[in-house]
Design goal:
104 residues; alpha/beta; 4 strands; 17% strand; Glycerophosphoryl diester phosphodiesterase
């Protein structure tokens, strides 16, 4: 959690410039869904910047203050249109087939 916090605080300060801080490079970020919209360039520019920096982005859904997943089909409507990053799910059996049909 400390590395995520360090990355996001630095990105908040520098993201408008297009710079990806060192704390955000070559890592995996589990971004809480409710904070994602506050990130500079969310979703497309942010995802592109992180990909170029060697970082994988996973969007996590929080329910009642606890981390959870995009576990129900209706949860997918909360994803930005055309979202190409990863998502956290505890029900790949339900969600996987739905996403597979959306991707080329």
């Amino acid at each position: 959690m400390a590395s995520l916090k360090r990355c996001l605080l630095q990105y908040e300060a520098l993201g408008w410039t297009g710079i990806v801080p060192k704390a955000c490079r070559e890592t995996q970020l589990h971004i809480p869904e409710q904070y994602a919209a506050w990130l500079w360039g969310w979703p497309n520019r942010f995802l592109s910047r992180m990909e170029r920096a060697g970082t994988r982005v996973i969007l996590v859904k929080y329910v009642d203050g606890f981390s959870g997943g995009f576990d129900r089909p209706e949860d997918l409507k909360d994803l930005p249109k055309g979202y190409s990053g990863g998502i956290w799910t505890n029900r790949i059996d339900r969600i996987g087939p739905l996403l597979k049909n959306e991707r080329p």
